[in-house]
């Protein structure tokens, strides 16, 4: 068995052994791209039912033939020194995407996929100057980035490539954002790692398909080192406010150090990369401060807390609760889970699976294997699901589902729940949601239902009256006695950029412009009246049905860099989007959301504000956002 650190062997037998652990459908796509041999697509097509490796049912003989032929091709390339990378025409690329996903893929994905197949390096994804500004002009364009998490690091890398000076201000004592802050038991990602990584910085050595927190944080630590970012980062510095000075066309930034001292900086451009999952939201329950034992939010987990042998009351059953519960349940005396509403839960055979050495070797060494594997994950966890989110106005069962595909997904998850709880029918009524699939974020089954069947676990759906010193008191008067209280209750997402104050032209504060809990931006990036200001992971750029937030950040930063190119090459002082562009775009966003699951009647989720407007997540397919952000139209912006 080869591992990812071994070089590609030159003999067919050695290569054949290396290919044994790799996914045959993905190997087939590499083979077709290297050779142009279309017949493999037709032979395999009847056996591919989806993009995941567990949706491939090719006969063993066909799998072996694919591996044999690819080993021959790779051996010949190694012998001849041929390292050219053939580019399929549009028709072949379309056929290959069809095979990769098990279904027809619209032609508007061709350009995006072609870019991903060829632009796999940082250089190919970096800004190209049309007329490079002078060194003095670049030096005067210093950028301040707020936040050294996933988005801030990526923005810094692209600015560094373009030669634009920058500094990153980070409130924590390390980089990594949410993956540094969250240390609760079981913390991990629910997007496959080989997709949840920068396109130009793959990690072939992920230990699992869905890695845990430490591996993810270490990935971002390595990125900061690999791209020499640390000398630009100031840790332990939290921005409190920023004011735009029209006379100098610059931002005056006020920050506070860990020791309480005040710092001030001046920047031409301000970039917010603070994210949305970093300000814990506590539940609105009376008596929360009266609890006698340890009580903390999952995002503020006490690393010294030992849960073994204790009675734990956990409020919340969303993404973090779904990870904490099964992790600690075997070791606690009792786990009492307080659920307000259930989530749809989907099984995934890869969720707990490790990545074997052969697969790692293929990812690192087989040409195009990684790129096609990422596309398969892109489809299976993002755009391939998008049709299930749209309301069919003629659908006869609107209370339970939105359309035929949404109903199909619902039935699939119901079957899984019923199978897991076949011997505990008393729990089914508590765990099957009464709203359509995707109304809240879908959770991947972390052995949740097996945990619920444990003798030391209670799932409580009755209403809570208040927290008392000894535990949780219900409205019927019952008290659940607890030694510790865990709050898995999410974040203050609606308070976007909170608690910072951002003052634009004429001294107007950004939150005053938005109004209560109603953040808006053009492409999630820019707001009129706030020149030279960009937001990453801004309004309507989060993802709820799946997807990859890194992909959205890569799109946003691309557009930001195009805007900065226009600003600097033209010699102008400031740039901001026009009001009519901002308003028109947000009308489109609202119109799209009006026909999607998150505004379904009676639906409650953190994506909507108290008035029902969806402010947090995107209504677009990822390919649509890629297209929008890949182009820059100067007519949409105002220069001063």
Would you kindly provide a written description of the structure presented here, covering whatever features stand out?
- With 640 residues, the protein is an alpha/beta fold.
- It contains 20 helices and 21 strands.
- The strands form 6 sheets. It has a 5-stranded parallel β-sheet, with helices on one face. A 5-stranded parallel β-sheet has the order 8-17-9-10-13, covered by helices on one side. Strands 6-5-4-18 form a 4-stranded mixed β-sheet, with no helix packed on it.
- A hairpin with a 4-residue loop joins strand 15 and strand 16 (479-481).
- The longest helix is centred in the C-terminal third of the chain and has 22 residues, at 549-570.
- The chain starts with 11 loop residues before the first helix and ends with a strand.
- The model has no long low-confidence stretch (mean pLDDT 95).
